[in-house]
Each structure stands twice: as structure tokens, then as C-alpha cells.
User: Which sequence fits this backbone?
């Protein structure tokens, strides 16, 4: 990068990989295994790109012969293939055990115990030693760098259920009606298993009578649980497993006990397996996986393409060039760049490590402590998943679960996200002022005008994404596909661009575009269709009007740019590409592959680098998506059990009883549950589980549906920086080489905006630009803006108060404004923040007291909430003025006295 980090604190790619390996428990594979993983990942991405571009129909158009239909898939089949790809990658990337778990430690004690008791030469000791060695070879991967035999077995088994679903569709349709009656047995499908099957049946276990489809469903569920344990930890695996057990034996819960509402009707294993494995209405392949197939994966892939194109490091450089010279400039640049990259990546941990490898050393160098530097990076990275327009994967889940248009979701999510990052900016500024931390010298920073001139095109895909989704209103997967094509076309053009090729290349693109448009006006198809019509091989279609022809040609402009650029790349592969600055990971991968092929000079070939960019992006997207797909597949079991068992209404009644019918108690319960369930768990899984269990009750409480879902999301993101788990904060500490717990505590404090801001928009939906009409919540329009009786009290005042409250909270947390803030004043700033942002909280507490006293009350009216906001504003102004006067006094006092008074609190 063009910013000078000053040396030794910057992490190498190997160190970044090591930190990610430790936090995510992911293997580092080399050689042929690495190539195998890359090949599977690229295949996974290619499959998803086809789905995004062509839906579930697989056909190929061949000139003269026409369209050849290869086949089409049902939604269940597509979902099964999607999950199977993730299972295979999970078994390759995550070890079954490193040998340091409680079970393997206990098993490891058997061998030395037998040897000590019987002696090393005893026959039983020899047998036990050989069995232990075989077990270690077959299952353990202590160095996280090898694929074990048990992994290979898991991979083979993972393919069987998907193969059955794809090839035996008619039988699956019969299962929906007759369950597993009259379906094939195990020995019918796999004749070589007949001897062991009959032997087990002879022992009294009727395996020979069980359906092959039934056992494949059981196998699939067990494999999802195992992949969940490996990739996401035992907490989520245990939770999902308990729900499966509960689906079978939940009827045993005593109905006359305190847990009586949790009792369900008796159910057999056949129905449970069918509902959790062979339908898209509930279970593994239900809505969460469908959303992953249609939306999540393609946008993870878009983020990978954008990052590998060099947009990530360009944006970081741009942020530093704009803010780097200011007070605390490196931290402010980290807030901006980490939020942007976190929005795209959807992974707090990965973004903390990759972006933090650059930002954290610069923060430390400018004067921030290692703990504060790691905390800023991890808090900003986790907050990126709240930032529109991508919001990690959360935006698409919200769209699907709420039925809200995507444009409305990102409009509603914008101001709360901006408020969070404004609070981060305020806190790093106050910390810089307190510590006398300046910025970096301008000589060490890139020139912002030069940076914009040489990299403005990186913003084109993001602008196109917004256009496709908000203005053109394309479907989400179609918008994602077109945006990926735009990124690939952009990098192909940049790779081929130089002074000599610029004119001919642009001219050729324009010419082909005009020919394409003209072809649509004449034969109703593209240039290829016109050629076939001219040769008499096809008949002409219905000609289009000029406007329709231009729109149709524009939809293929990306393909034209790619074809023309590749032609120029292949014609002049070894010339310099002055604007091409791919991510370091792409260049490193290209060099390694070129060296393995014995052609190191190939790494400088522009066409080869472009190919490496495309393949590395597809591989990176698949690796990132693997944990997300496993998470949504496992989490889908929980709402599946709730819906199939009929638990939903009973669970809502139980939650209502626990909360005592209090909205405030319900919100606190939901927030605490979100943090607990989010610890060490992907945001997507946490969101799905919490919405399944708590979504109904919080919506029934009268909360706007978007506010309810974003509330769960915000509190779930707090889990990434909440001790004792705080995975993102620990990753930041690893990069900063700081104390882990100290970093987590600071990151938690810096993220407290994620607690108050959700309360603010729940009680004041106008912050999200929402208004209730006829019992339905809608995004406001221009008529609402001009309705001043609504807009000022419901939107303007809550929004301004939210930002002022975030400012006051920043002073509270840092303990500094114009001068240091004493403890009593910090408490007063906290009160001012609460009154400005959420005056409803103290009012609801007062209502509770009045209710206990038998005094009816209704305090949540604008005249009272507005008065409390005004009190908070007065408190903030008075406290700020006093602190400013104190700061000016300290500036005028002699240095020794200044130092003494500045530290007196």
C-alpha cells in the first residue's frame, strides 16, 4: 500500500493467516490439498453464479442446433447441492479434533494407563498402542495442516444425501404423501451392504426394514451437526441437537408444571426426519438456506470480487489520505474503512484481521495504546454489518423474513448505522485529544486527488448495485449477478488499459454496443442472432424499438467489455497496466502458482493476473460463505421444529409471562438473549434463532417489524465484542499484540452505541423513517416530510436527539471532552445521553412503579418525552460549557499545575 506503516508492527500475510486460524479454528493447507479446496470452492461459486444468472434451468445454446436442455432442478435439489458444497468444504477446512478437547484428552489417558499397569511389552499394551496410533492418524490434526481419513469418510457420506435428492425426485415426492413406506431399502440401493445389514437385523435391530431415504435424512442431519461443531463450535451444535431431541420427546414435558407451555404433541422419527430434511418449508433446507442460495452467497461473492480487485486497499488508502493528518487520523480512517469493508465481508473476525493488519499498526504508531487500537478496529468491523447497502448478509435475511422491499430495509437501517459510526468517530477523537495524538505527516500519506483519479472506478460497482436495487428495482440475485459482471468487466478493462490501447479498446466497445443495439432493432436479437439469421440458420424475431434495443444492449455491455478487454490482454499480455493494483492475496497466489508451473515470469502477464483475480475471488467467496451456509443450515432446524411442532404460540405465551407483559422487560430479555446466542456464533445464525423464538412476541408488542429485526441484529453484533467470548475483539488483540481481555473490555465500551441506538429506534420509529398507517408500518414519503406536525416531533427531534445522545455517550465512555471529565460528571453525561436518546426508559420504569401502587398512568406522550429530551439537552450544554471553561483554564495555567489538575480525578 502507499501509506508508510513504519515497519515492524505490520503483520505479514502468514501472520494474518495464523491469527485467523487460531480464532476460526481453520486449517492451513498447502500443495495438492490447497488446490483441491480451491477447485471445490471455485466450482461452488460457479454453481451459484449460474443460479444467479440463469435460475434453476441448465441449458446451453449451440449455434445451428439451438438450445440444448441439460436439465432443471427443484428448489429442494438446489438447496441440497448448496449445503453439500458447504459440508465438503467444512470437512476439508475444519479439523475434527486437534487432540486437546476433553474427550480426546480422556481417551489419550487410556494408552499410558494400560502401559503403566501391564508393562510396555504386554500384548494388550501393544494392541492399545497401535489402536491409539491409528486413532490419532485417522482423526486428529494437531497442527491443522492435514486432511485426515475421517474427513474423507465424512466427505463421501456428505455427497450421498444430495445425490439421492437430485436423482430420486419422484420417490421424494411420494415421501411427502406416504412418508417412507414403499421406498427402497439400504440393501436395494447399495447391494454390497446387504451382509452387514442382515447381520445387524439378525441381532434384533430391524435395519433391513428401514428406508434408505430415512437413513440418508438421519445421516444428513448428523453431518450438519458435525460440520456445525467443527466450523462454529459446540454451542450452536448442542442447541440445534437439543431442538431435534425436543421434537421427538418434547411431549414428555409435564403440562401442569412451570414449563407446561413447552409441551408439544407426540411425534415419530419418520415425520421429524421428513420435515427437517426433505422439505423447504421447515428444517435444514428451509427459508434460511433458500435466502443463502438466492441472495447471501452472491453478495458474499460480490464482496470477494470487490476486495480482490484492490478496492479494499484503495478505500483504506483514500480514508487515510482524507483523515490521516487530523487528530487521531489513523483511528478515524480505521472507523471509515473498517465499516466499509465489514459491510461487504459480513465477517467481523476476518475483517478485523485483514483490515486491521494495516490500520492497527498505524494507530499504534500515532500514539494509541495497543488495546485501544485493537478495540477500535474490532468494534468498527463488527459494526460494518449494520451499514447499508449490503449489511453483510443480514439485509437479505430481513428482506425474506419480513417481506419488506430491499430499498425500505436499507432506508430504515441508514441513520442508526450512521449514528453508531458517528459515535465511534467522536470517541476516537476525544481519545486523541486526551492523549495528544496527532495525525501522520502528509508526506507519508497518498494525495487524495491522485488517489481519486487513479481509483475512482472502484466506486462504480457500489453505485451500480444501488442503482439496480433501488432505482431499477431488479431482484436481489439478479442485481448481485450484474454487479459481479460489472466488477469483472471493470478489472478486465483496467488490466488491458494503457496509453496505446485506450483509444482502440474504447472505440471497439462502443462499436460493438451500437452493433448490438442495431441488431435488436432489426432481428430482435443480438449480433450472434443477426449473423445466424444472415446465414439462414435461424429466423428473425420481433424487431424492438430504439429505447428497448438500447436497454437490451446495455444489459450485455459488461460481457462486451470483458470480451474486448480479454482480446487486448491476449494480444499484448506483457505490457504494463498502470491502473491495475489487485489485492496482495491475488498477486501472491498468482506468483505461487506460476512458480509451481515452473514459469515464474508468468506472474507479470496481465492476462494471467486477470485470470488469477477471477479464480481467487471465486475461491475466497466460497471459503467465506462456507461458515455462513453451515450456520443457516443448522439454524434453520430451530424455526423448523418450532413451526412443525406447533410450539410457536406456546413459546410466545411463555415469553409474555416471563416478561410480565412489559415491553421494556421484553426488550431487555431479547437484548440479553441476542448477546448470549451471538457469542462465538455467526450473526446470521443468531438472527435466525432469535427471530424464530422472539420475533413473534416483540412484533406483538406493537413494535415496527423492521425495528424489531434490526434490534435483534444490533444486540447480536454486540456479542462479537462482549467478554468473555468477544471473538472479534480477541482477533483485534492478536493483530495489535495486546492483552486480549483488556482489548475486549474497551471494544465493548466503544460499542455501547449498539445498545442505546436500538432502544432509540424501537421507541422512535421515525429515526428509521417509518410511520404507522392503518396499523401497518411504512417508509415515509415526501408528503410525510411536509406534514410538519408529524415530521418534526416524530423524525427531526428523535434523530437530532439520537446524535446528541451518541455524542454525550462518547464523552461518558472516554472521560474527556475539552478537558478530563470527573466521575460524577461522567454519570451526568450518561444521564443526559439516556434522556436524549431514550427518555421512554425512565418513563416506563416510572409507569411500572405507578402500576404497582395502583395508579394508572400513560407517560409516553410527546409532551413528556419532549420535555425529558429538553432536560437532557440542557444538561449536555451546561456540562459541555463547564468542561470547556475548565479546559481553557487548564490551558492558561503553568504546566506543573495543569498536569496535577488534569489528573486529579
Assistant:
Amino acid at each position: 500500500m502507499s501509506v508508510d506503516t513504519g515497519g515492524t508492527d505490520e503483520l505479514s500475510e502468514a501472520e494474518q493467516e495464523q491469527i485467523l486460524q487460531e480464532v476460526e479454528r481453520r486449517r492451513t493447507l498447502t500443495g495438492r490439498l490447497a488446490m483441491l479446496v480451491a477447485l471445490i470452492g471455485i466450482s461452488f461459486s460457479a454453481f451459484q453464479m449460474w443460479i444467479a444468472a440463469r435460475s434453476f434451468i441448465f441449458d446451453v445454446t449451440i449455434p445451428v442446433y439451438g438450445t440444448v436442455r441439460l436439465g432443471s432442478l427443484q428448489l429442494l435439489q438446489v438447496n441440497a447441492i448448496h449445503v453439500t458444497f458447504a459440508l465438503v468444504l467444512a470437512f476439508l477446512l475444519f479439523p475434527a479434533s486437534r487432540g486437546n478437547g476433553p474427550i480426546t484428552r480422556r481417551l489419550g489417558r487410556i494408552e499410558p494407563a494400560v502401559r503403566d499397569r501391564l508393562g510396555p511389552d504386554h500384548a494388550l499394551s501393544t494392541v492399545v498402542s497401535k489402536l491409539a496410533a491409528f486413532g490419532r492418524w485417522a482423526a486428529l490434526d494437531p497442527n491443522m495442516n492435514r486432511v485426515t481419513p475421517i474427513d474423507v469418510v465424512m466427505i463421501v457420506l456428505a455427497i450421498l444425501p444430495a445425490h439421492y435428492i437430485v436423482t430420486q425426485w419422484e420417490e421424494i415426492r411420494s415421501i411427502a404423501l406416504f412418508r417412507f413406506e414403499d421406498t427402497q431399502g439400504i440393501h436395494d440401493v447399495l447391494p454390497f451392504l446387504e451382509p452387514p445389514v442382515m447381520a445387524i437385523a439378525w441381532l434384533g435391530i430391524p435395519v433391513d426394514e428401514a428406508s434408505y431415504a430415512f437413513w440418508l435424512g438421519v445421516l444428513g442431519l448428523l453431518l450438519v451437526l458435525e460440520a456445525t461443531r467443527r466450523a462454529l463450535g459446540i454451542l450452536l451444535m448442542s442447541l440445534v441437537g437439543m431442538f431435534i431431541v425436543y421434537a421427538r420427546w418434547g411431549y414428555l414435558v409435564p403440562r401442569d408444571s412451570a414449563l407446561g407451555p413447552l409441551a408439544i404433541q407426540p411425534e415419530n422419527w419418520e415425520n421429524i426426519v421428513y420435515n427437517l430434511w426433505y422439505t423447504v418449508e421447515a428444517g435444514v433446507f428451509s427459508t434460511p438456506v433458500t435466502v443463502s442460495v438466492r441472495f447471501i452467497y452472491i453478495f458474499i461473492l460480490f464482496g470477494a470480487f470487490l476486495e480482490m480487485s484492490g478496492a479494499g486497499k484503495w478505500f483504506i488508502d483514500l480514508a487515510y489520505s482524507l483523515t490521516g493528518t487530523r487528530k487521531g487520523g489513523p483511528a478515524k480512517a480505521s472507523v471509515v474503512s473498517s465499516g466499509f469493508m465489514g459491510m461487504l465481508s459480513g465477517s467481523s473476525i476476518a475483517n478485523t484481521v485483514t483490515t486491521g493488519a494495516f490500520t492497527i499498526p498505524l494507530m499504534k504508531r500515532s500514539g494509541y495504546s495497543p488495546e485501544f487500537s485493537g478495540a477500535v478496529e474490532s468494534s468498527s468491523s463488527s459494526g460494518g454489518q449494520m451499514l447499508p447497502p449490503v449489511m453483510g448478509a443480514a439485509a437479505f435475511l430481513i428482506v425474506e423474513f419480513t417481506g419488506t422491499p430491499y430499498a425500505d430495509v436499507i432506508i430504515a437501517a441508514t441513520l442508526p448505522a450512521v449514528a453508531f459510526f458517528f459515535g465511534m468517530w467522536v470517541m476516537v477523537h476525544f481519545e486523541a485529544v486526551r492523549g495528544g495524538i496527532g495525525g501522520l505527516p502528509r508526506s507519508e500519506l497518498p494525495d487524495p486527488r491522485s488517489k481519486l483519479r487513479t481509483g475512482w472506478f472502484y466506486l462504480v460497482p457500489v453505485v451500480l448495485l444501488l442503482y439496480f436495487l433501488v432505482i431499477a428495482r431488479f431482484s436481489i440475485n439478479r442485481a448481485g449477478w450484474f454487479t459481479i459482471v460489472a466488477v469483472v468487466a471493470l478489472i478486465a478493462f483496467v488490466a488491458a488499459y494503457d496509453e496505446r490501447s485506450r483509444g482502440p479498446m474504447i472505440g471497439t466497445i462502443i462499436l460493438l454496443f451500437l452493433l448490438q443495439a442495431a441488431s435488436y432493432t432489426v432481428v430482435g436479437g443480438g449480433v450472434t442472432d443477426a449473423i445466424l439469421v444472415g446465414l439462414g440458420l435461424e429466423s428473425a424475431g420481433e424487431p424492438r424499438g430504439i429505447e428497448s434495443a438500447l436497454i437490451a444492449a446495455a444489459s450485455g455491455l459488461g460481457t462486451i467489455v470483458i470480451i474486448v478487454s480479454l482480446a487486448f490482454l491476449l494480444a499484448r499480455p506483457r505490457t504494463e497496466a498502470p491502473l491495475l493494483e489487485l489485492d496482495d492475496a491475488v498477486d501472491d497466489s498468482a506468483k505461487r502458482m506460476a512458480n509451481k508451473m515452473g514459469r515464474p515470469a508468468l506472474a507479470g502477464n496481465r492476462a494471467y493476473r486477470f485470470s488469477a483475480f477471477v479464480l481467487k475471488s471465486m475461491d475466497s467467496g466460497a471459503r467465506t460463505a462456507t461458515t455462513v451456509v453451515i450456520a443457516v443450515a443448522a439454524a434453520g432446524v430451530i424455526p423448523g421444529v418450532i413451526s412443525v411442532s406447533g410450539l410457536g404460540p406456546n413459546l410466545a405465551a411463555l415469553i409474555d409471562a416471563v416478561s410480565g407483559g412489559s415491553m421494556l422487560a421484553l426488550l431487555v430479555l431479547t437484548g440479553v438473549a441476542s448477546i448470549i446466542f451471538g457469542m462465538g456464533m455467526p450473526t446470521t445464525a443468531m438472527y435466525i434463532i432469535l427471530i424464530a423464538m422472539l420475533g413473534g412476541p416483540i412484533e406483538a408488542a406493537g413494535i415496527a417489524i423492521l425495528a424489531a429485526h434490526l434490534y435483534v441484529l444490533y444486540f447480536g453484533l454486540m456479542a462479537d465484542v462482549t467478554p468473555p467470548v468477544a471473538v472479534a475483539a480477541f482477533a483485534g488483540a492478536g493483530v495489535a499484540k495486546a492483552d486480549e481481555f483488556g482489548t475486549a473490555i474497551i471494544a465493548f465500551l466503544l460499542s455501547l452505541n449498539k445498545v442505546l441506538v436500538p432502544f432509540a429506534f424501537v421507541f422512535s420509529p421515525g429515526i428509521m423513517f417509518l410511520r404507522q398507517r392503518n396499523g401497518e408500518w411504512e417508509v415515509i414519503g415526501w408528503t410525510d416530510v411536509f406534514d410538519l406536525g408529524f415530521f418534526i416531533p416524530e423524525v427531526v427531534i428523535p434523530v437530532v436527539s439520537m446524535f446528541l445522545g451518541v455524542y454525550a455517550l462518547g464523552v461518558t465512555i472516554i472521560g474527556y471532552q475539552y478537558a478530563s471529565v470527573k466521575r460524577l460528571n461522567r454519570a451526568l453525561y450518561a444521564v443526559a445521553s439516556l434522556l436524549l436518546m431514550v427518555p421512554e426508559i425512565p418513563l416506563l420504569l416510572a409507569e411500572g412503579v405507578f402500576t404497582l401502587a395502583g395508579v394508572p398512568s400513560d407517560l409516553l406522550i410527546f409532551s413528556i418525552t419532549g420535555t425529558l429530551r429538553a432536560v437532557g439537552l440542557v444538561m449536555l450544554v451546561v456540562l459541555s460549557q463547564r468542561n470547556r471553561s475548565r479546559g481553557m483554564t487548564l490551558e492558561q495555567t503553568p504546566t506543573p499545575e495543569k498536569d496535577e489538575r488534569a489528573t486529579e480525578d
